Amino acid sequence: MKLRVEHETRYCYDAPVAYGLQQTRLRPKDARGQKVLDWTVTIEGGASELRYEDHNRNIVDLIGIEPGRTETSIRCVGLVENTSSDGVVGEHQGFLPLWHFKRSSPLTKAGEGIRKLASRFDDADKTSVSLGHDLSAAILDTVGYEGGNTHSGTTAEEALRGGRGVCQDHAHIFCSAARLLGLPARYVSGYLMMNDRVEQDASHAWAEAFFDGLGWVGFDVSNGYSPDERYIRVATGIDFREAAPINGMRMGGSDEGVLVSLRVEQ
After folding, report:
1. How does the average pLDDT of the chain come out, rounded?
2. Is residue 68 domain-shared with residue 13, that is, in the same domain?
3. 207-234: per-residue pLDDT in tens?
4. Domain co-membership, 115 together with 32
5. Are residues 146 and 257 both part of a single domain?
6. Which end of the chain offers a freer environment for a tag, N or C, measured as fewer CB atoms within 10 Å?
7. What sign results for the dihedral spanned by CA atoms 135, 138, 142, 143?
8. Which residues lie below 8 Å from residue 141, measured CB to CB, with a gap of 6+?
């Protein structure tokens, strides 16, 4: 399956920006079952100052905002061919050891609620991928998918306590619980071609856990299954902050508006 992506994020500032720097993770890489045929990132109101691989092997662009700008945009257009539909990413690669993905982070720190959820699987076979599917189902049953209740800084424990969340929250809860059970787990950001529409409001997120003999396996808690050929993996990390499509800082332009346009289609 070939997927075409058009993704634009436009920022409007209420005053000219004196200085700004954005860190983007918007370039997918070739992986098992995923081949990038074409991918272009176009910047309006700024320029790429540096491109590098971070400690998670994500491709990162550092974009400097032109001084005095009141509007900037980052636009991605690309074509990716997918041939895998089993959700298996495979063996561990990169700069970080597997034990790194067993540690917690501020967004995935387990509290009483997640510890109670994870304890339901204490006796499960930790080498079986069925554990990941069962944990995913338990999370979705506990935290229904509903927007408007959480934000980018909501922790896994807060989302669990609130009982409602989005894909970012589901991925954080999965990572937190899986790590308590002794599994390396990481957050994934990327794209999903939906069956019922082309236009979307935002990119997607899911989680991956590592199983001996199989490697990294993806779990999309929000949709209740493993990623298939409709998914494009872009970035990974210990949590959202390490895999965020765009983050940054600026001086001047104290308030900003953000407009996102996204199309994913076959």
Report:
1. 95
2. yes
3. 999 999 999 999 999 999 999 999 999 9
4. no
5. no
6. C
7. positive
8. none
Identify any residues that bridge with 24 across adjacent strands, giving them in sequence order: 61, 246
CATH number of residue 97's parent domain? 3.10.620.30
Rounded to 5°, the CA angle 262-71-255 comes to 95
Domain count, the chain: 2
- Helices and strands in the chain, H and E counts: 5, 16
Structure tokens belonging to residue 152: 């980018």
Same domain, 75 and 186: no
Tokens 């959480």 -> residue: 150
Distance, in Å, from the CA atom of 156 to the CA atom of 223, rounded to the nearest integer, reads: 18
Q: What is the pLDDT of residues 100-141, one digit of tens each?
A: 999 999 999 999 999 999 999 999 999 999 999 999 999 999
| Residue whose structure tokens are 């959202």 | 240
* Amino acid code (one letter) for 177: A
Q: Which domain holds residue 6?
A: 2-83+245-265
59 with 108, same domain: the answer is no
Could you give the CA distance from residue 119 to residue 87 in angstroms, rounded to a whole number?
Answer: 25
Residue bearing tokens 């399956």 = 1
Q: Is the pTM of this model over 0.90?
A: yes
Q: Which two tokens stand for residue 169?
A: 């929250």
What pLDDT, in 10s, does the model give residues 73-86? 999 999 999 998 89
